[in-house]
Amino acid sequence: HVQLVESGGGSVQAGGSLRLSCAASTYTYSTYCMGWIRQAPGREREGIAFIDDHGRTNYADSVKGRFTISKDSAELTVYLQMNNLKLEDTAVYYCVTLDSDDAPWGQGTQVTVS
After folding, report:
1. What is the distance in angstroms between the CA of the first residue and the CA of the last residue of the chain?
2. Is residue 73 very low, low, confident or very high in pLDDT (cuts 50, 70, 90)?
3. pLDDT tens digits, 21-45
4. Which of 39, 65, 82, 105 stands the most exposed, by the fewest C-beta atoms within 10 Å?
5. Nearest to residue 35, comparing CAs of 113, 112, 100?
6. Looking at residue 101, what is its pLDDT?
7. HEC profile for the chain?
């Protein structure tokens, strides 16, 4: 299985920025597309940003214009630059690939906006 290791979460004031990173241990078919999903207490899980090896991206409306996803395919690392953070961005952020059976979710990284 591919291992996904997230980092970069933390606490920040509203309007601030954070950058999340996710490193995959190896390249497989599933790492062709990687992205981020977040889960906040009492709220539905939300897919927020995805990118493939061609650099094509997709964002949830809730983060468009504030978050930017990028990928270093050579390093198998995906980044999420989060700017102008809002209270509602508070959640655990998980790095995901095309296939969670191939690349199980990690523990996630907590982002807290106050």
Report:
1. 36
2. confident
3. 999 999 999 999 999 999 998 999 9
4. 65
5. 100
6. 86
7. CCCEEEECCEEECCCCCEEEEEEECCCCHHHHEEEEEEECCCCCCEEEEEEECCCCEEECCCCCCCEEEEEECCCCEEEEEECCCCHHHCEEEEEEECCCCCCCCCCCEEEEEC
